[in-house]
Design goal:
CATH class: Alpha Beta
Number of domains: 1
CATH topology: Aminopeptidase
Number of strands: 8
Shape: globular
Structural class: alpha/beta
CATH architecture: 3-Layer(aba) Sandwich
Number of helices: 6
Bound molecules: coenzyme A
CATH superfamily: Gcn5-related N-acetyltransferase (GNAT)
Distance between the termini: 34 Å
Order of helices and strands: EHHEEEHEHHEEEH
Strand content: 25-35%
Radius of gyration: 15 Å
Strand order of the largest sheet: 1-2-3-4-5-7
Helix content: 25-40%
């Protein structure tokens, strides 16, 4: 199993993973739109033998500091719960930190994302259409430079059908 940056030739296999992992095509479309918009700042695949079995994308947010949004993240259903999502997310966060991003936001289940250090309390002060118990933040390389203000995901998220 290796994790590497996605490449153009991976697009169809990534789409298959996303369509299998989620109930509909929205997340697969979102990934393609983020890519087309130039917002796929960090995009990684997990490859086992020749098969792409997982994918994660991070895109820039409009925020009071240099922030990325994590998501979507998807693992092929028959490969879930074997640490693939965990490895993809940890590698992406390490790359974000190395590139001096100051924070990462994610919308999801705190039961899953807390293990990476994401905290709903850290996101509480920020105004967002997604504000609530499922919006979490993680500081990279030091405390967040601001604890309030407005945060918006990349435009493709707003076009989700
Ligand atoms: C969520 C997802 C990316 C996690 O990847 P994964 O490779 O299956 O997960 P990992 O093996 O890294 O982690 C497994 C752990 O996460 C937990 N877990 C997995 N999905 C979870 C969820 N939705 N909520 C809470 N916990 C979850 C498991 O219980 C397990 O915990 P344990 O290690 O304490 O037993 C994957 O299950 C998936 O693609 N799900 C469908 C798409 C999705 O919901 N994506 C996230 C929203 S963008």
């Amino acid at each position: 199993m290796i994790i590497r940056p996605e490449q153009p030739a991976d697009a169809a296999a990534i789409r298959r993973v996303l369509e299998a992992a989620f109930p509909g095509p929205d997340e697969a479309n979102l990934v393609e739109e983020l890519r087309a918009d130039g917002d796929a700042v960090i995009a990684l695949v997990s490859v086992d033998a020749a098969d792409i079995v997982g994918h994660v994308m991070f895109s820039p947010m409009a925020a009071p500091f240099r922030a990325l949004g994590l998501g979507p993240v998807a693992v092929a259903p028959d490969r879930q719960r074997s640490g693939i999502g965990d490895s993809l997310i940890r590698q992406g966060l390490a790359e974000a930190k190395a590139a001096d991003w100051q924070g990462v936001f994610v919308l999801g289940d705190p039961a899953y994302y807390r293990r990476f250090g994401f905290d709903p309390a850290l996101a509480q002060g920020f105004a967002s259409p997604y504000a609530g118990p499922h919006l979490m933040a993680l500081a990279l390389g030091g405390p967040l430079p601001a604890t309030n203000g407005r945060v918006d995901y990349a435009p493709a998220f707003g076009r989700l059908g």
